Amino acid sequence: MPVFFFDGHRSLRGIEVLLSGWMGPVLLEFGWYANPCFLAACVALAVGRERIALGSSLVALLLGLTSFATTGWVFDEAELTPIRGLGAGFGLWLCAIALLAAFSVVVVVVGRRREVAALGFKDTE
What we know:
Number of strands: 4
Strand content: 5-15%
Structural class: alpha+beta
Helix content: 40-55%
Number of helices: 4
Protein backbone atom coordinates (compact mmCIF):
# COMPACT_ATOMS: atom_id res chain seq x y z
CA MET A 1 0.00 0.00 0.00
CA PRO A 2 1.20 3.54 -0.63
CA VAL A 3 2.71 5.38 2.31
CA PHE A 4 3.96 8.70 0.91
CA PHE A 5 2.93 10.66 -2.20
CA PHE A 6 5.17 13.09 -4.09
CA ASP A 7 4.88 15.54 -6.98
CA GLY A 8 6.86 14.34 -9.97
CA HIS A 9 7.85 11.03 -8.40
CA ARG A 10 6.10 7.73 -7.82
CA SER A 11 4.59 7.01 -4.42
CA LEU A 12 6.47 4.90 -1.90
CA ARG A 13 5.01 1.58 -0.80
CA GLY A 14 5.18 0.30 2.75
CA ILE A 15 7.82 -2.34 2.04
CA GLU A 16 10.12 0.31 0.56
CA VAL A 17 9.77 2.49 3.62
CA LEU A 18 10.23 -0.51 5.92
CA LEU A 19 13.46 -1.56 4.21
CA SER A 20 15.05 1.89 4.08
CA GLY A 21 13.42 3.87 6.88
CA TRP A 22 16.03 2.79 9.42
CA MET A 23 18.28 5.47 7.89
CA GLY A 24 15.93 8.21 9.16
CA PRO A 25 18.27 9.52 11.87
CA VAL A 26 20.48 10.91 9.09
CA LEU A 27 17.68 13.47 8.63
CA LEU A 28 16.75 13.49 12.33
CA GLU A 29 13.60 11.44 11.67
CA PHE A 30 12.94 8.56 14.04
CA GLY A 31 9.42 7.37 13.19
CA TRP A 32 10.64 4.13 11.61
CA TYR A 33 11.97 3.02 14.99
CA ALA A 34 8.38 2.48 16.09
CA ASN A 35 8.61 -0.83 14.19
CA PRO A 36 11.07 -2.59 16.54
CA CYS A 37 9.12 -1.28 19.54
CA PHE A 38 5.88 -2.59 17.99
CA LEU A 39 7.49 -5.99 17.45
CA ALA A 40 8.83 -6.04 21.02
CA ALA A 41 5.36 -5.23 22.35
CA CYS A 42 3.81 -8.06 20.31
CA VAL A 43 6.38 -10.53 21.60
CA ALA A 44 5.95 -9.29 25.18
CA LEU A 45 2.18 -9.77 24.96
CA ALA A 46 2.65 -13.25 23.51
CA VAL A 47 4.82 -14.33 26.44
CA GLY A 48 2.66 -12.70 29.11
CA ARG A 49 4.80 -9.66 29.90
CA GLU A 50 1.95 -7.15 29.78
CA ARG A 51 3.72 -4.22 31.42
CA ILE A 52 6.67 -4.48 29.05
CA ALA A 53 4.19 -4.66 26.17
CA LEU A 54 2.48 -1.53 27.45
CA GLY A 55 5.73 0.41 27.67
CA SER A 56 6.96 -0.77 24.29
CA SER A 57 3.67 -0.05 22.56
CA LEU A 58 3.48 3.46 24.04
CA VAL A 59 7.03 4.19 22.92
CA ALA A 60 6.11 2.82 19.48
CA LEU A 61 3.11 5.13 19.36
CA LEU A 62 5.16 8.18 20.32
CA LEU A 63 7.81 7.35 17.74
CA GLY A 64 5.17 6.67 15.11
CA LEU A 65 3.53 10.02 15.73
CA THR A 66 6.83 11.76 15.00
CA SER A 67 6.36 10.59 11.40
CA PHE A 68 3.94 13.45 10.87
CA ALA A 69 6.96 15.75 11.08
CA THR A 70 8.63 14.01 8.12
CA THR A 71 8.71 16.53 5.29
CA GLY A 72 10.55 14.71 2.53
CA TRP A 73 12.28 11.60 1.26
CA VAL A 74 15.76 11.16 -0.16
CA PHE A 75 15.59 9.38 -3.52
CA ASP A 76 19.09 10.44 -4.52
CA GLU A 77 21.92 12.44 -3.04
CA ALA A 78 20.89 15.61 -4.90
CA GLU A 79 17.93 16.79 -2.82
CA LEU A 80 15.09 16.02 -0.47
CA THR A 81 11.83 15.33 -2.34
CA PRO A 82 8.90 16.94 -0.46
CA ILE A 83 6.09 14.67 0.68
CA ARG A 84 2.75 15.88 -0.71
CA GLY A 85 0.46 13.41 1.02
CA LEU A 86 0.13 10.35 3.21
CA GLY A 87 -1.29 7.10 1.88
CA ALA A 88 -3.45 4.35 3.31
CA GLY A 89 -0.37 2.34 4.25
CA PHE A 90 0.72 5.10 6.60
CA GLY A 91 -2.72 5.24 8.21
CA LEU A 92 -2.95 1.48 8.68
CA TRP A 93 0.55 1.35 10.14
CA LEU A 94 -0.21 4.05 12.68
CA CYS A 95 -3.64 2.55 13.50
CA ALA A 96 -2.03 -0.82 14.18
CA ILE A 97 0.37 0.78 16.63
CA ALA A 98 -2.42 2.75 18.34
CA LEU A 99 -4.61 -0.37 18.62
CA LEU A 100 -1.75 -2.36 20.13
CA ALA A 101 -1.16 0.42 22.68
CA ALA A 102 -4.88 0.54 23.56
CA PHE A 103 -5.04 -3.24 23.84
CA SER A 104 -1.96 -3.23 26.09
CA VAL A 105 -3.61 -0.67 28.38
CA VAL A 106 -6.74 -2.83 28.63
CA VAL A 107 -4.74 -5.98 29.33
CA VAL A 108 -2.74 -4.30 32.10
CA VAL A 109 -5.80 -2.67 33.71
CA VAL A 110 -7.92 -5.85 33.57
CA GLY A 111 -5.00 -7.92 34.83
CA ARG A 112 -4.47 -5.58 37.78
CA ARG A 113 -8.15 -5.69 38.72
CA ARG A 114 -8.11 -9.49 38.61
CA GLU A 115 -5.04 -9.59 40.84
CA VAL A 116 -6.66 -7.25 43.37
CA ALA A 117 -9.90 -9.27 43.33
CA ALA A 118 -7.98 -12.53 43.80
CA LEU A 119 -6.43 -11.10 46.97
CA GLY A 120 -9.87 -10.28 48.32
CA PHE A 121 -9.39 -6.52 48.32
CA LYS A 122 -11.79 -4.01 46.88
CA ASP A 123 -10.35 -2.11 43.90
CA THR A 124 -10.22 1.58 44.89
CA GLU A 125 -9.64 2.95 41.39
